[in-house]
Design a protein that fits this description.
Blueprint (H helix, E strand, L loop, with lengths): L1 E5 L17 H10 L3 E4 L4 H11 L5 E3 L4 E4 L12 E3 L2 E5 L4 H15 L3 E3 L5 H8 L3 H7 L5 E6 L5 H10 L3 E4 L4 E4 L4 H15 L4 E6 L5 H6 L2 E4 L5 H7 L4 E2 L4 H12 L3
Parallel strand pairs: 1-2, 1-11, 2-3, 11-12, 12-13
Antiparallel strand pairs: 3-4, 4-6, 5-6, 7-8, 8-10, 9-10
Helix pairs in contact: 1-10, 3-6, 4-5
The structure holds magnesium ion.
Length: 265
């Protein structure tokens, strides 16, 4: 049995246009073979639900850089240990509440003198402009629980800012567009938690992970097979994850080729 963990932006979705349609043959292959496809993203629950609906995905998913794992009803024939119930989902919560992240970022900004532009200071319209998302999706992107994306406005002071984040016991990472502040969570811990659940069904499980940003490094390193998608960060990422392979093309085209190779008919 194979279990696939994938980042969304710049990986299954095109970095600029957010299209996934070039990956349809590979999505079809996974569906036919019954391979769980786990979205593992810095997006919010609301955004990820949108993309699950668009792509017909019914598997568990990971939001906000590993802040939480959402398990839809019927995913496992046993209750998920440690999960809390939220709506129809069983939820494994790894992240730190959003209000604490916002406050820690404010403190780091003040102490370092490095100005930032975090999502919570932006309107949905402004988020739409800087992400290229349509306004309704930008609304979904603003509904954050465990991860605050931000831009750095004074790059020469970036190091001090990031140190101040760490000195308060928080983490930072970088996706394709933004820096992110999180608590003590990452995509790898979420991958391990879900893999452990699926191993109860199938001990000889092989995990595949695909990603394009530094926020994917830990997830890629934790998987049995890893694909780095070509991006501005891919050479750095290949250094950080020595066993990883570079996908043949960026975005959904390269994603599909990697999946079709790894999951034969
Ligand atoms: Mg990405």
């Amino acid at each position: 049995m194979v279990l696939v963990f994938t980042d969304l932006d710049g990986t299954l979705l095109d970095h600029e246009t957010y299209v996934f349609e070039p990956a349809l043959p590979a999505l079809e292959r996974l569906a036919v073979r019954g391979v769980p496809l786990i979205f593992c993203t810095s997006k919010t629950r609301a955004e990820t639900e949108y993309w699950r609906a668009r792509t017909g995905n019914r598997w568990p998913f990971v939001v906000e850089n590993g802040g939480a794992v959402y398990v839809p009803p019927g995913s496992f024939p046993f209750p998920v240990p440690g999960a809390v119930r939220r709506g129809e989902y069983e939820v494994l919560e790894f992240g730190t509440p959003y209000s604490q992240l916002v406050e820690a970022l404010r403190q780091a900004e003040q102490r370092s003198g490095c100005r930032v532009r975090p999502f919570h200071r932006l309107s949905a319209e402004q988020i739409a402009v800087i992400t290229g998302l349509p306004p309704p999706q930008a609304e979904l992107a603003a509904q954050r629980e465990y991860d605050e994306p931000f831009e750095i406005l004074d790059p020469q002071l970036a190091e001090q800012l990031l140190r101040e984040i760490e000195s308060q016991g928080f983490r930072w990472t970088r996706g394709g567009r933004f820096y992110h502040i999180t608590g003590n969570n990452d995509k790898a811990a979420a991958l391990r938690a879900l893999t452990a659940l699926y191993r109860r069904l199938e001990p000889a499980l092989v995990t595949i992970a695909l990603g394009d940003g530094l926020n994917d490094a830990a997830m890629l390193a934790a998987a049995d097979q890893a694909f780095v998608m070509p991006s501005a960060q891919s050479s750095r990422l290949l250094e950080m994850v020595p066993g990883a392979r570079l996908a043949p093309q960026p975005g959904p085209v390269g994603w599909a080729r990697a999946i079709l190779e790894m999951v034969p008919e």
